[in-house]
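Consortium newsletter contribution from the modelling node. Members have asked for a concrete example of what our holo predictions look like. Here is one, prepared for the erythose-4-phosphate complex that several groups have been discussing at recent meetings.
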Amino acid sequence: MKLFLDTADVSQIREVLEWGIIDGVTTNPSHVARAGRNPHELFPEICRLVPGPVSLEAMGLDADSIVAEGRTLARIADNVVVKVPVMKEGLIAVKRLAAEGIRTNVTTTFSAVQALLAAKAGAAYISPFVGRLDQAGQSGTELVSEIRTIYRNYGYQTEIIVAAIRHPMHVLSAGLIGADICTMAYDVLAMLYDHPLTDQVMQTFLEDWQKVPK
Ligand code: E4P
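And here is the predicted structure:
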């Protein structure tokens, strides 16, 4: 499974690249706002740093605007993936961008039929927002499972990016279902390393090592 970092914070990206476990980055408008930097400088810097796909979001609301914005974003670097919302105008744009060889990540996805439409339009990636669906009282994991089944049934090549991940159990279920990618914030990625028994055993080993005659 590939792991992406969900951020527009360059210092986080630099640090996590050192960990050697991430394969790409996803950004969104909220991350960019928090970074507090001009996207014209920020986006090329992120694309230079990351040796994998970088999702940058198009903010237009009609297909023509999304296509125009997508073309501009795609010119930043070869590793740009244009993030497009799953609405009708967005999927019209996805079809047109795909015809030009521009890869898209269809985002804000909350149903399996939305994911079906995105695949038919030629999306390279689909991003179901599992944590937000859980918060709304539905199962994010069930959604990922449904999308995996539909894509497998019909041979769609669109890769599933499990997004809005809140904790390691989301990553575990994504892996068991066979999702292609999980994208998550720095804090959640850091949680994946932790287990209380690891700390406990390490503590015992360190204490016992002090008793070894040296
Ligand atoms: C994914 O591509 C999105 O940027 C992200 O996962 C959104 O999740 P949020 O609910 O943490 O904002």
